[in-house]
Write a structure and sequence with these properties.
seven-stranded mixed β-sheet; three-stranded antiparallel β-sheet; 14 strands; Aspartate Aminotransferase, domain 1
Length: about 375
Amino acid sequence: MSRPFNFSAGPAVLPEEVLERAAADMLDWHGSGMSVMEMSHRGKEFVSIYEAAEADVRELLAVPEGFKILFMQGGGIAENAIVPLNLSRGERADFVVTGVWSERPQKEARKYCDVNVAASNADTGHTTLPDAGSWKLSPNARYVHVCSNETVHGIEMHELPDLKALGCDAPLVADISSHMLSRPVDWSRVGLAFGGAQKNVGPAGVTLVFVRQDLLGHAMAHCPSAFDYKIVADNQSMYNTPPTYGIYIAGLTFQWLKAQGGVAAIEQRNIAKAKMLYDFIDSSDFYVNRVATNCRSRMNIPFFLADESRNDAFLAQAKARGLLQLKGYKTLGGMRASLYNAMPLAGVEALVSHMREFEKEHA
């Protein structure tokens, strides 16, 4: 019997092959006599796992040598504090607010530095992207923060902003949590990118940070040592015990992604999956997506029934068909389908089939 299709926004679906491999290795990793969860993070067995994972993600995302890759903890929410502690020097940082996950970091950063909201789409209900030419950037900002994919409202920056073209010399900080590894990254536009693993990479508990080396060594005096990027980098992400099992699963996911043809190949699949669902929604009067077409997310697709009194019936029938976790975010309502890398096209086909039949039954 095939597994249900899990549309959760995170923790999210993992490739079945990765889960099977982890299950086979659970009691004894490669003849070591230990589960990965039992290994010393400084032992040769885990060090080999870590080094392979770091090398594979560097290859997959074509991360330049001038960037350090850190495996940290705390997810994107912790990085909302760790970034200003490392980069702001207690001065000013700019924020572009495009939804929940860019609203929260600007509030958090106020504890550590001066904050300027350079742009916001709140007036449209977070359904559009403010044009970069309209951003009110500070001449002295230490960095500019964006969330390039908003999981709640379903907005994606299909290109990262070119701050230099806007006359801004500050480094761009990008929260890429919910579309990391779903498409290439233009590192020439990035100073630091981070993302929690629990969307496209692995289980909750691991946070990947890609930081340009010239941005290391500027942490504020009261920054905890375990959050100081330079200390973490100098200790190869092992200043404290890292989330070893999460790194192992991430490493298996990187291997799986390479076997699929890499990031360029998976991006084309993601485009096809998203197009299938958006095309159906747009062809129907029964369902609606409210996001402007030029910034619709490929990863997280919110939609609403025209008659929301039928929401519970829609979800119950979806669950009966093996379509799980489609309920929308608590403050937004409606539905949300997350189409991460591990979601097969067959899952989207099954969802569209359910939506079509439910519309015929209730229209």
